[in-house]
Each structure stands twice: as structure tokens, then as C-alpha cells.
Amino acid sequence: MPFGIASLRIAGFVLWPFGRTTVERPGAGAPSCIGNLLWLVLAGWRLAIAHIVTGIALCITITGIPFGIAGFELIPVSLLPLGREIVPTKQPFATR
């Protein structure tokens, strides 16, 4: 269940990353750390490499630079998504 929620969080952030950022949730705890380790081994490193490669490819063209930068911003949330929260950029330290 947490991996499905993390996947939906990544998908929502991928659809429109502009004007939003990720922050660590303060009360995440040890289960989040264990889940992140499992995520990293199973899928996280592949997603992070994919975002790096596509970010570099997009930054080659002038019109793709904003999308390449947005791709680089997706690396932390795709690498370790559990225990993170997506907030508007105007409020980078917002809590629920």
C-alpha cells in the first residue's frame, strides 16, 4: 500500500512539477526508512537514472531546458519517495 501511494505521488509530481517541491515529512519514522531502502533496491535507482538521462537529453535543446531542469528535480522523489511530501514552492516548509 505505501508503495502504491508513493507511485501516485511521483505520478502527480511528474504531471506538473512546476511551482511545487518536495520536503521531508517530520514524522515519517523507521518504517519509511525501511520502505525507502526496499524501494531503492527494487525501482528507485532505475527511475533516478531515467530522470538523469532524460534531463540531460532535454537540456541539449533550448526549448527543453525547463523540462530538463524539472526532470532533475524529480530525482530525489523517485529515488526515496517514502517520507516525503509535495508542497507548493511558495511554502517550502509547509506541514499538514
Backbone CA Rg: 14 Å
Beta-strand segment tally: 2
Biggest sheet: strand arrangement: 1-2
Task: Determine the fraction of residues in helical runs and give it as a percent range.
Answer: 55-70%
Question: Helix and strand layout, with pairings?
Answer:
Elements: H1 2-15, E1 20-24, H2 29-59, H3 65-73, H4 75-79, E2 84-88
Antiparallel strand pairs: 1-2
Helix pairs in contact: 2-3
How would you characterize the overall build of this protein?
There is one protein chain. The chain is mainly α and 96 residues long. Helix 2 (29-59) packs antiparallel against helix 3 (65-73). The chain is globular. It has helices at residues 2-15, 29-59, 65-73, 75-79; strands spanning 20-24, 84-88. The model has no long low-confidence stretch (mean pLDDT 81).
Features:
96 residues; mainly alpha; two-stranded antiparallel ribbon; 4 helices; 2 strands; 61% helix; globular
Give a brief rundown of this model:
61% of the residues lie in helices and 10% in strands. The protein is mainly alpha-helical.
